[in-house]
Design a protein that fits this description.
The structure holds 3 protein chains of 3 kinds. By secondary structure, chain A is mainly α. Chain A is built from 9 helices and no strands. Chain A has 2 domains: about 35 residues; about 240 residues, MetI-like (MetI-like fold, Orthogonal Bundle). The longest helix of chain A is centred in the N-terminal third of the chain and has 46 residues. By secondary structure, chain B is mostly helical. Chain B folds into 2 domains: about 50 residues, no CATH class; about 200 residues, MetI-like fold (Orthogonal Bundle), CATH 1.10.3720. Chain B has 10 helices and 2 strands. In chain B, strand 1 and strand 2 form a beta hairpin. Chain B is elongated and about 75 Å long. Chain B starts with a helix and ends in a 10-residue tail after the last helix. Chain C is α/β, with parallel strands linked by helices. Chain C has a domain of about 140 residues: 3-Layer(aba) Sandwich (Rossmann fold), CATH 3.40.50. In chain C, the strands form 2 sheets. A 6-stranded mixed beta sheet of chain C has the order 6-7-8-3-9-10, sandwiched between helices. Chain C is globular. Classes of the chains: A mainly alpha, B mainly alpha, C alpha/beta. Chains A and B meet through helix 1, helix 3, helix 4, helix 7 and helix 8 of A and helix 1, strand 2, helix 4, helix 5 and helix 6 of B.
Chain lengths: ~280, ~280, ~280
């Protein structure tokens, strides 16, 4: 099959579905004369977005900054913690059941707590929440990568009388790297989601989440959807950045070999998300 | 096995005690009004208003929710949590059913898979939860009870992880087994029931775990937009009163924790049942 | 070379002028098989042997109606291959045992019977009978992953024979087993199939295996696969461990080996005799 034909096969069906979907939406709204405050037509969302673009963009920057800061700190904390857990078994035993429990709990409800402890007028509570959630995702995955080196590799290194630190450098860390990228691809969109869901729980009145709820509350639905579009774009951008980072860091590496260990999030990536496609 | 479970439970309790101790320790050591680093309020306030004592939190559970009434707050919070749990469970079941159905349809008609799958996958990178207020707005207009809308959003969020995982699982049957069913002249649907679905179960289980947490969060967030009185709503309203009644907020947090653990327990039980008689995955 | 094949109505399998080309008409067309004429009689044990890529597995799948030939016809039990498959006239076994990991051994054996619509009592009694036959009566309630490779293959064979089909198609079923287990399984297979007079078509790339098991060995050339030789192996109906050390056994092995080497010379393909074991 030629390359052109292959690309055609991949692009055309989703394009057709997309066009059909938007078209049907538009038609239904017009034919049934659905009130704009209920469900706006795609065309009106588009025009409102055009009018509002600078506001949406500003909100994207704010939420995006929160997500980015939280993501960076979360990755650093997660990685650091995973090393500590690997080194000190006592800490591992204590932290792991806690992590499992926290995995189950919707800790987003802690945002008001943070608002209380820190200043609710700054972005700190939101960034802290993102950091927390991202740390757990990264921690669970990287710890697994550091621990689960293939038995064959371990035997080989032992036969070379490698010291623990050499084993760390030569086997564990490279193994953990691919897990790190898996975690990153999950954590990036989760950071965005957490950032703006945090905004629903009060705090300063800016950002995408605030834009969505405030506009929805006063029935300016088309404007509200505009912020939704902004949120989708932001989430997609973060995910693509993570994929790009993975490709740049190690062109030959595929993080597709294993089951990701996931923290809670609103939208998770199943294994099929990696463009490389292959699975464990 | 029993001793391992007991040990884990004991360690969990120890871990909780450690966390509580750290909390109290910080209260003693930390600055009352917090502190700023590089202009950011990074060091939290340790006043009793901002960080109640752990025993105050526990004690608050037994005080009434609203002054003058008799019911202690733990009852109210339990009621909220149970309500949220039921909505999340309904959402999980509904979303799961649709997710499995869609996966089967996509497995049957490859054309549909090519058209829809990119969207299903992309939906997991974009924040669908942004639609919660919209759904609430639409729902507010129709006469259906509000909790159904909240459940629907949970279902919407649970739908995608399960659809993706199921589709992957349906394709994971061994080629030799598929040929075998072919050699028995078993049709597509019989092959689905006897081979592909059972083969898909190990892949579906992680998807179900994700869907469960997604549904819970979807429901909690939707409560805020719709005003349905579950544990999400409670944390928001208590949070708004945090300056006058700081410990109250933490009761809602405990409620949310209980809800999460209950859902987690349910999923673990389902996993154990679904995966009995299957070979254990080898772990290092 | 072979003697001319009489087409008789009692022939279990008749392959007539069959060719198989994949991606036919496109630039990447692959001619897997060309001009295959083969007649297998009821009760025969026929091995298909040849180097990797010679199309022996393809030929087996054509007989099984898992794929359709580009030209020519395949008759099984006097019917078209398709009708045979729909009537479930044969049992099949692969290199991977293909057992369902979520079913017990017993339920795995019952699978074809379920698909045939048998009642529960009838299924269970037949499954017990098959377990007895392959000497795994104690393992009926076990899960497949609890069994060794050889035992799993025995279950696969029991499953393939569960409905007592007249024809058994096997694609390198012992390929993944170690040598000792393999020899043992070969003896078991002869015992089981001999008792029921089952016709067997057996794909292998091991010369000793083909000679030990078969009444006839069909030699295929490298791609595009043609039948270059059919060697009669008259080691008798009763074969056991002593057979492996008989002079005739070695003589037949040499005959097959030379036929394979000769086949290599006849092909237009680039490769030599690869993928054939001398063990």
């Amino acid at each position: 099959m030629s390359a052109v034909r292959a690309v055609w096969n991949v692009l055309v069906p989703p394009l057709i579905v997309g066009v059909l979907f938007v078209g049907t939406w538009e038609i239904i709204v017009r034919v049934f004369d659905i009130k704009p405050f209920l469900l706006p037509a795609p065309s009106s969302i588009w025009t409102t977005l055009g009018d509002n673009w600078s506001k949406v963009w500003d909100a994207m920057l704010i939420t995006g900054a929160n997500a980015l800061v939280g993501l960076l700190f979360g990755v650093v904390c997660g990685v650091a913690l995973s090393f500590v857990l690997m080194r000190f078994n006592v800490v591992n035993e204590l932290v792991t059941p806690l992590a499992v429990a926290l995995n189950a709990i919707p800790i987003i409800v802690l945002v008001p707590v943070f608002n209380n402890m820190f200043a609710s007028t700054t972005e700190v509570p939101r960034r802290l929440m993102v950091t927390l959630i991202v740390s757990f995702i990264v921690l669970l995955n990287v710890a697994k990568g550091l621990r689960q080196v293939s038995a064959t590799h371990m035997e080989l290194l032992h036969s070379y009388a490698a010291s623990p630190s050499e084993i760390l450098r030569k086997a564990r860390i490279p193994n953990a790297m691919s897990y790190l990228f898996t975690a990153l691809k999950i954590a990036a969109p989760v950071a965005v989601i957490t950032a703006f869901v945090s905004e629903y729980f009060g705090g300063s009145q800016n950002g995408l989440g605030y834009g969505i709820t405030s506009n929805a509350a006063i029935s300016r639905t088309a404007a509200s959807w505009g912020y939704v579009v902004g949120a989708c774009l932001l989430g997609l951008a973060f995910y693509l950045a993570a994929v790009l980072l993975e490709r740049l860091a190690s062109p030959s590496q595929r993080s597709t070999h294993h089951q990701p260990t996931n923290q809670q999030s609103t939208n998770q990536q199943a294994r099929g998300l990696d463009p490389g496609g292959a699975t464990a | 096995m029993i001793t391992r479970g007991a040990r884990r439970a004991a360690l969990f309790v120890v871990a909780l005690v450690c966390v509580a101790s750290l909390w109290e320790f910080y209260k003693i050591v930390g600055p009352e009004e917090g502190a700023e680093i590089f202009g950011w309020r990074l060091v939290p306030r340790s006043s009793d208003r901002a960080m109640p004592h752990t025993w105050e939190m526990v004690q608050r559970l037994f005080d009434p929710e609203v002054r003058g009434r008799n019911t202690p707050i733990w009852r109210a919070v339990l009621g909220y949590s149970w309500y949220t749990f039921r909505m999340a469970l309904a959402g999980l079941l509904l979303g799961g059913a649709f997710g499995v159905a869609l996966a089967i349809v996509m497995a049957r008609f490859k054309v549909l898979e090519r058209g829809l799958l990119p969207y299903v996958i992309a939906s997991q990178t974009v924040p669908l939860i942004a639609l919660a207020p919209q759904v609430a707005a639409i729902g507010g207009n129709w006469d259906l009870p509000k909790w159904m809308w909240v459940s629907s959003l949970g279902a919407f969020l649970a739908f995608f992880p399960i659809a993706v995982a199921t589709l992957k699982g349906l394709g994971s049957a061994q080629p030799a087994s598929v040929e075998l069913m072919d050699s028995y002249a078993a049709g597509w649907w019989r092959t689905l029931v006897k081979l592909r679905l059972p083969a898909a179960v190990p892949t579906m289980v992680p998807g179900m775990k994700l869907a469960a947490t997604a549904s819970v969060i979807g429901v909690i967030v939707s409560e805020i937009s719709t005003g349905v009185r579950g544990v999400g709503f409670a944390s928001l309203t208590y949070g708004q009163k945090a300056t006058s009644d700081p410990a109250q907020l933490y009761t809602a947090v405990f409620g949310a924790a209980a809800l999460g653990l209950l859902m987690f327990g349910l999923i673990v039980a389902i996993e154990a049942i679904a995966m009995r008689n299957r070979p254990r995955e080898a772990t290092a | 070379m072979s003697s001319p094949e009489p087409h008789t109505a009692s022939a279990a399998v008749v392959v007539d002028g069959v060719s198989m080309a994949f991606n036919s008409g496109r630039p990447n067309q692959v001619d897997a098989l060309v001009g295959i004429d083969l007649s297998i009689h009821s009760g025969d044990f026929v091995s298909l042997i040849g180097p990797s890529g010679c199309g022996k597995s393809t030929l087996l799948r054509l007989i099984a109606d898992l794929i359709e030939p580009t030209s020519g016809t395949v008759l099984v039990n006097g019917k078209s291959a398709k009708q045979s498959r729909l009537d479930q006239d044969y049992g099949m076994a692969f290199q991977q045992s293909g057992l369902f990991e979520w079913r017990t051994v017993r339920k795995n054996i019952e699978l074809p019977l379920e698909l045939k619509g048998w009642g529960k009592a009838k299924r269970q009694s037949r499954a017990e009978e098959m377990l007895d036959l392959v000497q795994l009566s104690d393992f009926g309630s076990h899960m497949p992953w609890q069994l060794s490779g050889g035992m799993q293959q025995r279950v696969a064979i029991a499953r393939a024979l569960a409905s007592h089909p007249p024809l058994l198609l096997m694609d390198e079923p012992f390929g993944a087993l170690d040598e000792m287990t393999r020899e043992h399984m070969q003896a078991e297979l002869l015992r089981i199939c001999g008792a029921a007079q089952t016709t067997v078509v057996f794909v292998t790339h091991s010369i000793p295996e083909a000679v030990y098991l078969s009444s006839r060995v069909v030699v295929l050339s490298p791609r595009p696969g043609r039948i270059t030789d059919i060697i009669d192996v008259d080691l008798g109906a009763e074969r056991d461990e002593d057979t492996r050390e008989a002079d005739l056994f070695y003589k037949k092995i040499t005959e097959v080996r030379e036929a394979l080497r000769g086949a290599e010379g006849q092909t237009s393909g680039p490769t030599g005799v690869r993928g054939v074991e001398d063990r």
